[in-house]
């Protein structure tokens, strides 16, 4: 049943998957229609027959790449029991940023947010939604940890969640700019300290 996609749906998915690394590496502005047609082997007419424009392809690609990262986090989280260990998954998964585990081009949130901040409102909104959704998941895990007696009461969930997101994304930006996994590892140690300090 799950493979019963229409031909159009299969073509759309093929275009998204095939161009996911290109958009995530070159960005929206840097990816041309010829990049898309060359990668997919499809004509420009076929691309436009499945997507309204290049921006729609880019939005779907962002969702696809972000979904891959989210799924990697979920799979690892499902294997651990404590809320401390669940939060630590973020540091563990993002530690793989430069080790070939992430979508080609790196973190789709960081890449999209940096490129689209002043140039593309729809992509900026998509990146903002991803950041706020991530923050909410962290807040929920902290609250669940407090209720389970694992974390201290009276924690500022908003501040901690934003700090974790900022440290991870900032660490990725520094690692990418300096071509140094060691710099990311150093920042992620701070994330681990921050999470451990919440424990009762």
UniProtKB/TrEMBL annotation:
Q: Does the keyword Transferase apply?
A: no
Q: Any idea which UniProt keywords this protein has? A: DNA-binding, Transcription, Transcription regulation
Per the record, the domain of life is Bacteria
In terms of InterPro entries, this protein maps to: Homeodomain-like_sf (IPR009057), HTH_TetR (IPR001647), Tet_transcr_reg_TetR-rel_C_sf (IPR036271), TetR_C (IPR011075)
Q: Which GO terms describe its molecular function?
A: DNA binding
Q: What residue stretches are annotated with the HTH tetR-type domain? A: 9-69
Under SUPFAM superfamilies, the record lists: Homeodomain-like, Tetracyclin repressor-like, C-terminal domain
Specify the protein name.
TetR family transcriptional regulator
Please name the source species: Mucilaginibacter agri
Upper lineage: Bacteria, Pseudomonadati, Bacteroidota, Sphingobacteriia, Sphingobacteriales
